[in-house]
Amino acid sequence: MTDIIIQGICGRMGRALLEKIGVRDDCRVIAGVDREPGHLGEIPIFSDFDALPCRGVIIDFSSPAGAVAAAQYGAANGLPCVICSTGLSKADEAVLEAASAKTPIFRSANMSVGVNVLIELARQATKLLGGEFDIEIIEKHHHNKLDAPSGTALMIADAINAEADGRYEYVYDRTQVRQKRGAQELGISSVRGGGIVGEHDVLFCGPDEVVTLSHSAGSRGVFADGAVQAALYIAALAPGYYTMTDLLRGKLLCE
Hints:
Helices cover 35% and strands 26% of the residues.
């Protein structure tokens, strides 16, 4: 039985995690961290990590500052961390990297297994089509999302660019550009509206054909499920920096 501590337990993703974990018999939620201390049913909630009287795998769905706090606490106390918050700066990411020397840190800006399969497919498509096809990424999210472009769109773009040896330049806004599209451009567009959970399209646009890779999340449950899988995956691993790619490849090796 894997014990789990949820940071952001009172938020939408916290509730989704509680729903997912509640029907499982291989893990349980033993505590939460959120702004207001108290209880959620029988689960105690603490205002910060220093007040925690227990140990477990931390799943963080909070904010960049919360993600950093979770990683630092996990490193100091030997607790594995699944960091799911988005909008982290390079300095924040550096803190996570440093923490991974002392405890397992699992990091993904999108915990959906399906999205990460899309990223792997985008890598393969880049290998086969890159250089001949223009590449555009379109991401859509609900109107409450603060950061743009989404962390997932940047994950996709970075995977494509790594496959292409870094030749692409990201272009986010063409409203002030009056020139032909450059061959080394990788366009990223954002849409915010209504209650869209998360949609990502990767377009490979050739002279006479378009290949589109697409993923749509129907509910926040897909992110919660991926976070739980990640928590179970790293619970007994050695310190290190892990991603969804590691989890997916581990699954392939086990099959």
